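To: structure subgroup
Subject: Chain for Friday's discussion

All,

I'm putting the inputs and outputs inline so they're searchable in the archive.
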Amino acid sequence: MSENLLPPKLPVIEMVKEAFQGAYFHFNDMVRIVWLPTLLYVMINVYISQQTANALEPSIFLLGAFMASTFLWAMMAVAWHRRILTGETPTDLVHFKFGRPEARFVLVTIMLTLLFLPGVIFIVMSTGLSTADLQNMMAGAEPTLQPDNVSVPFLIVGYVLLFMAFHFSVRLSLLLPAVAIGDGVNAGQVINMTKGNFWRLLGAVLLCGLIVAIAVNIVSAIVGSVFLAIGLGVAEVTLIINIVVSLLSIFALVVNVAVLSIAYRHLSKT
């Protein structure tokens, strides 16, 4: 392919700036879109964090909570993708919709996750652990690895497959805004669109994540210090921090949705 036919380079700083500006200037639209799913999402994530913090064994309720969290996130993400790419803004006070675009969004999310499965399988196979050992690990027991049983070739193949999965999952993440606006699932087209832009797309997402992570740490430290100072117990402060972190994580995810939408808009024009 000639240099003139290559997709344009993504403007990382401009994308991140537009993503944060959009969340700021269209804050009312964002709140209208996400307030009810966010409320349920925060409640579910607080439940999940308490379950995992207490090292409880996986249960049907915990699995259901993860699934509900995924569906709620799809509702928020699809609405925000459509707001950015098509200008569609829900006018109702309550936006709680799960239709075909949201279902396809969930399926693409699962597909992107499954890209990592072959690498994980090879790494697990490289450890030489038996089925009983794996079952014990899932139950919370510490594995007893024997260095002599580790297969280096399987381990190398596993890490190579994980790197490849990571590479393609970043590029194929632009399928998410595509299915949100009804453009369909065309992995080949997205791979062609993102040629030469892996590091730029990854950099934009990481930069957004870094900015929000700094904000989360600062706000969590301030909130924790203030509520401990006024005499609340550690359990209550931990619960409050979990709620604050969940709210800020929603903002982070909304900004990352905006980055993907902006990247898709930029590259799909060519």
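Points worth raising on Friday:
Residues 234-268 form the longest helix (35 residues).
DSSP finds eleven helices and no strands in the chain.

D.
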